[in-house]
Specification:
The protein has 370 residues and is an alpha/beta fold. The chain folds into three domains: 186 residues, Spore Coat Polysaccharide Biosynthesis Protein SpsA, Chain A (Alpha-Beta Complex), CATH 3.90.550.10; 71 residues, no CATH class; 94 residues, Rossmann fold (3-Layer(aba) Sandwich). Helix content is 36%, strand content 18%. The strands form two sheets. Strands 3-2-1-4-7-6-8-5 form an eight-stranded mixed β-sheet, sandwiched between helices. It has a five-stranded mixed β-sheet with strand order 10-9-11-12-13. Helix 11 links the parallel strand 9 and strand 10. It starts with a strand and ends with a strand.
């Protein structure tokens, strides 16, 4: 039924903690996890990764040693070796908090290829990244046959934005991606070895590749500009201008070689989250009575929220203090949930732009003054 796939490299303590957490998972007593396994893909660690053959709860563990560091694409090796229909993708510092993922994969819609988890960091904040139909690699369930059908992760990406490329390929192949808050993952987010210049290099290059590959031709320039602007700001904030500049140089050199996989308008609107925001905000009565609105906590794909509000002829206030209604301005699931938690102390309505499965009804539009 389930194969847990964990790539690792030179982080023995992290891997040990993740395996111990997997070994504490309560497995269903009905035999529903018969044949469940853990596959550790060792991306050429200096000292080969080690693990017990069997975890305390009966999960079998296999280690696949690679001769080179394949980055996130090491997951492809684990997927090919997996014996089960569903892959639970984790990092060597992430693990499910409970058994909710068993229920999530028990009966999903047949066209759902991947299900993103609610990913919690130390201290209670959520993981950044992702979109309504883009998972985060350290906490997701993926159908093995769909993953292999589209070729898994692109080895050229290394790390960062590889999930966007994967999910774009799944959407183009006719699949859907969902998020379900019953599937909860802890991400310790080990900081050892994190080089912000290297990260910004990959972020701007890889996200630029995604835009070049999948954005419809008439919108490609706008989305490339949005990528460059977004990561330029992050580079300044993180003191990683050198890495950003290297990434830009790499991007400009490699753009002409990117395959043209431009999406149809309908599928691209799902990929960006535009379709999800339209569906939710169209049904929100607070937006259709003439109230002024402010977009707050802007983040990933804030432009989508603004576009939908303008399509609906909603009056957007010049500043937050003048608005009668607030709309969260990020489509990344974790930052969106964090913003909703903070903003529910407001004495005015706060609207969530899209709704993961099992999201409490109060979070769709909370108004503590009522």
């Amino acid at each position: 039924m389930i194969s847990y796939v964990l790539p690792t490299r030179n982080r023995r303590r992290c891997l040990k903690a993740a395996l111990e957490a997997l070994g504490r998972l309560p497995l269903p007593p009905d035999g529903g996890t018969s044949g469940a396994e853990v596959i550790v893909v060792d991306n050429a660690s200096r000292a080969p990764a080690t693990a017990p053959a069997i975890l305390p709860n009966g999960l079998a563990v296999r280690i696949i040693r690679r001769a080179t560091n394949e980055g996130a694409a090491g997951r492809n090796v684990g997927a090919r070796a997996a014996a089960n229909d569903w892959l639970i993708m984790l990092d060597d510092d992430s693990w499910p908090l409970d058994d909710g993922h068993f229920a999530v994969i028990a009966d999903p819609d047949p066209d759902v290829a991947a299900i993103g988890a609610e990913i919690l960091l130390p201290g209670g904040r959520h993981e950044d990244g992702g979109l309504p139909e883009v998972i985060i690699g350290c906490g997701a369930a993926i159908r093995r046959d769909a993953f292999l059908e589209v070729g898994g992760y692109d080895t050229a990406f290394g790390y960062y934005a590889e999930e966007y490329d994967l999910c774009a390929k799944l959407i183009r192949a006719g699949w859907r991606i969902a998020h379900d808050l019953r599937f909860r993952v802890r991400h310790e987010k080990a900081t050892a070895g994190r080089d912000m210049d290297r990260i910004l290099h990959h972020l701007v290059r890889n996200n630029g590749w995604v835009a070049q590959r999948y954005v419809p031709p008439e919108e490609k320039a706008d989305r490339l500009n949005e990528v460059i602007t977004r990561y330029g700001r992050i580079a300044i904030r993180e003191g990683a201008a050198e890495g950003f500049c290297r990434g830009m140089a790499d991007l400009l050199t490699t753009l002409p070689q990117q395959p043209d996989r431009s999406m149809s308008r309908e599928r691209f609107d799902r990929f960006t989250g535009l379709a999800h925001v339209r569906a939710v905000l169209a049904e929100e009565p607070l937006l259709h009575g003439g109230a002024s609105v402010a977009i707050v906590d802007a983040g990933k794909n804030a432009w989508v929220v603004e576009r939908v509000l303008r399509e609906f002829k909603v009056s957007i206030a010049d500043c937050e203090s003048e608005a009668e209604v607030l709309v969260i301005g990020t489509l990344s699931p974790g930052p969106m949930l964090d913003a909703m938690d903070r903003r529910c102390e407001e004495h005015r309505p706060v609207i969530c732009p899209w709704l993961p499965a099992a999201m409490p009804a109060r979070s769709a539009a909370c108004d503590v003054s009522s």
